[in-house]
Specification:
It is built from 8 helices and 2 strands. By secondary structure, it is mainly alpha-helical. It folds into 2 domains: 106 residues, no CATH class; 109 residues, no CATH class. Strands 1-2 form a two-stranded antiparallel sheet. β1 and β2 form a beta hairpin. α1 packs antiparallel against α3. The radius of gyration is 21 Å and the shape is extended.
Length: 221
């Protein structure tokens, strides 16, 4: 399981690097390159997520990085002017298995966070929810449990979105698809087969200002 966790982290890093590569390619390519040219730039000119001062930026090949880091598959979709510019899958679905395609399912992971935020803010724009209201008035199937913290301060939508709600940390466990998978409610309640603690307000907001947690996003999905 630890090996798969590392692969997921590496895959997320590769995808982040690909996004950086899109920006780099945009600077290096000609003014109006074709989608295929932009794709080639990403494949051949990934840049590092972090660059130390005094060190060159350098570029990397996606194929070389996949081989070096033992990443079985990567899927990339580039958006340009509000539309999908190009999409391509690399590698194989499983070791020794068929090639990955743009229809191969990957774990959404933290990509779900900005998508959730956009959906929530659209509801705010339409005046259907209030960012600073008690989120429990909007939650239907599950509500944040009341405890000593919520007596004096309710959890708001805004706090869930910016990770300052005080909700206990959820590290986004990776589950084996061949084993029983927890439902959203089982994850929120900490009920097996979920491997996480129940989702609840565990510290006051002031103590949690620098705490980032994925559990808050489960509440508003």
């Amino acid at each position: 399981m630890e090996r798969w966790r590392n692969r997921e982290l590496i895959r997320a890093w590769i995808c982040s690097a690909a996004i950086c590569g899109v920006g780099l390619a945009g600077l290096q390519a000609q003014e109006n390159p074709s989608a295929s040219q932009r794709r080639q730039d990403v494949q051949d000119h990934l840049c590092r997520y972090i660059v130390l001062r005094g060190h060159g930026v350098g570029t990397m090949s996606l194929a070389e990085q996949m081989a070096a880091l033992h990443v079985p598959a990567v899927s990339v979709a580039a958006i340009r002017d509000g539309r999908i510019d190009w999409a391509r899958a690399y590698g194989v679905v499983s070791l020794g298995g068929p090639p990955a395609t743009t229809k191969t399912l990957f774990g959404a992971a933290s990509i779900a966070k900005p998508l959730t935020a956009v959906g929530v803010l659209k509801l705010v724009q339409e005046r259907k929810i209030d960012l600073d209201a008690d989120v429990n008035q909007y939650l239907k199937r599950w509500k944040i449990p009341e405890n000593a913290f919520t007596v004096t301060k309710k959890v708001t939508v805004r706090e869930l979105l910016n990770h300052t709600s005080g909700i206990g940390t959820h590290n986004g466990d990776i589950y084996d698809p061949s084993q029983p998978l927890p439902t959203l409610l089982e994850m929120l309640n900490g009920v097996k087969p979920a491997r996480t603690l129940p989702c609840a307000w565990r510290q006051c907001q002031e103590q949690n200002l620098r705490t980032r947690t994925a559990a808050t996003w489960c509440c508003i999905c």
